[in-house]
Design goal:
Blueprint (H helix, E strand, L loop, with lengths): L9 H52 L23 E7 L2 E6 L11 E10 L2 E8 L5 E2 L13
Parallel strand pairs: 3-5
Antiparallel strand pairs: 1-2, 2-3, 3-4
Length: 150
């Protein structure tokens, strides 16, 4: 009588491990991009309060606020911060969000993006863009979809 062997051979197990490794190699970088995008979205959310303050100041005075204090925001930009955003600052109406919290991904550490207002006949339009004039710009692929030029 012949003994029937049960289970998997070593080669079958090696093939399964190789397939899992290939899938992980594809999935992990894609997941990292989504993770960084979620961190950048925190900057957009924190900037929304500053957008309201800048819009109200412009409606009342007809000029853009010169800084956080004139916009009615905390003087210290670091007061408007989150887990990934170290501060939101207003200069001449332009809002700048800077990413450098301890939890921020290294790909965006120290990077910034701006929201620039323009008067369009009584309504204010906001243009979101990477901030090249202040620090290092957040790479386009991590910006919210409304900010990407591609």
């Amino acid at each position: 009588m012949k003994n029937m062997q049960k289970g998997f051979t070593l080669i079958e197990l090696m093939i399964v491990v190789a397939i899992i490794a290939i899938l992980a190699a594809i999935a992990i970088p894609a997941y990292q991009d989504y993770l960084i995008r979620s961190q950048v979205s925190e900057g957009a959310v924190l900037s929304d309060g500053a957008k309201t303050a800048v819009s109200e100041f412009y409606s009342n005075h007809g000029t853009w606020p010169t800084g956080n204090q004139s916009a009615g925001l905390p003087t210290n930009a670091a007061s408007i911060s989150g887990k990934y955003v170290s501060g939101v600052n207003v200069v001449s109406g332009v809002i700048t969000a800077t990413f450098s919290g301890a939890s921020a991904n290294k790909a965006i550490q120290g990077d910034t993006f701006t929201l620039s207002p323009t008067d369009n006949g009584g309504s204010i339009n906001w243009t979101c863009s990477p901030a090249t004039a202040v620090g290092t710009a957040v790479p386009q692929k991590y910006l919210p979809s409304s900010c990407r030029t591609q």
